[in-house]
Amino acid sequence: MELRNMTLASLSVDGRGSYGIAASAVDRSDELYTYLRITDIRDDGTLNMADLKSVDDEKASQYLLKPNDIVFARTGASTGRNYFYDGTDGEFVYAGFLIKFSIDPVKVNPQFIKYYCMSDAYKGWVHSYNTGSTRGNINARTLGGMVIPVPPRQQQDGMVSILSVLDAKIKNNIEINENLAA
């Protein structure tokens, strides 16, 4: 399998990352967009739906996530934590401490990027920016320059297929366990 080293920016639609909206969270309301914050993203890339908030800002619609977007936490102890948006979790406006990259499905299987950003290689790359007692902080340019080893499309699709099945099984097992505990 021959790998091509590509940057995250080169695999995105517009070649760059963008910062989320700088607005305060408000209590959850069906009349407003749901506000995706760093604290809503778990280490495994899933969402904690228990304490979602909304955002009340006239510019909120400009920050709506679209399928194949991936957002990254850019600061603090959760630097590098990420969430891949496929549209199934509802509509979200992403917060200012998140950086969004829109993955181009012509260039790469977007879910391959999702799974790469859960890998030990990715976590090691992030950790290299969190050395010593300094607080983690990664900006859009640094994230965009992250080099990702990209296999041919057929291998990407195969990996994504296998990992997606495993994710579905894990999710199903968690739901079964939660029902048994109830």
UniProtKB/TrEMBL annotation:
Pfam families per the UniProt record, alphabetical: Methylase_S
Tree of life domain: Bacteria
UniProt xrefs under CDD domains: RMtype1_S_Sau13435ORF2165P_TRD2-CR2_like
Domain Type I restriction modification DNA specificity: 44-178
A molecular function (GO) term: DNA binding
Coiled-coil segments on the chain, per record: none
Gene Ontology biological process terms from the UniProt entry: DNA restriction-modification system
Keyword list, A-Z: DNA-binding, Endonuclease, Hydrolase, Nuclease, Restriction system
Gene3D superfamilies named among the record's database cross-references: DNA methylase specificity domains (3.90.220.20)
Family: Belongs to the type-I restriction system S methylase family.
Record-given protein name: Restriction endonuclease subunit S
Organism name: Dorea formicigenerans
